[in-house]
Amino acid sequence: MSVSRMCSRAACPHPASATLTYVYSDSTVVLGPLATYAEPHAYDLCAEHAARLTAPRGWEVVRLDTGAPPPESHDDLVALAEVVRRRPQPRRDETAGARAVTPVPRSVEAASSTRETGRRGHLRVLRDES
Cα dihedral sign for 22, 27, 29, 30? Predict the structure, then answer.
C-alpha cells in the first residue's frame, strides 16, 4: 500500500509533484522534483502551485527539472545550479576525514531508484542507481 503525499498548500486536495525548499543564507527558493522523503523544512507542492510559485521580493527562484517545461527566463543562477548538479563529486575515503556511512535497510532502498548512503545531521546522502 503506497500513500502519496499531498500538496502542502492549505485546502489543496491534489497530490504533490514538486518539493520546495528555502536557502536562507543565499536568499534563494529551490523548486525541484518531489523529494524521496518528506523533510520537516521542505514543502511539497502540486503541479499547479509549483507552476504559480513566486518568491519573496529580493529572492531568486531556482527551478530544477521537475518534468515540466523549463521557465522562460534562464539566468546565471539557474545555469550555475545545473553545472553543480551535473559535476561528479570526488570520493573521499576514511583516511581523508570522511564520516562513516550508515547503511540503509533494504526495504527503503527498494522503494525507488535512489538509495540513502549516509546521513549528516538532518541531511541525507542519496545515490541515484539508474
Answer: negative
Between CA 85 and CA 23 the distance in angstroms is 16
Q: Give the residue-averaged pLDDT of 64-84.
A: 64
Place of cell 527566463: 73
Side-chain-facing half-sphere of 12: CA atoms under 13 Å: 18
Q: What is the pTM of this model?
A: 0.49
Find out whether 51 and 88 touch, Cβ atoms under 8 Å.
Answer: no
Contact between residue 77 and residue 40 where contact means Cβ atoms under 8 Å apart? no
Query: Over the stretch 6-50, which tens digit does the pLDDT of each residue have?
Result: 999 999 999 999 999 999 998 999 999 988 888 888 999 999 999
Helix (H, G, I), strand (E, B) or coil at 49: helix
Instruction: Using the structure block, give the residue that is written with the C-alpha cell 489543496.
Output: 12
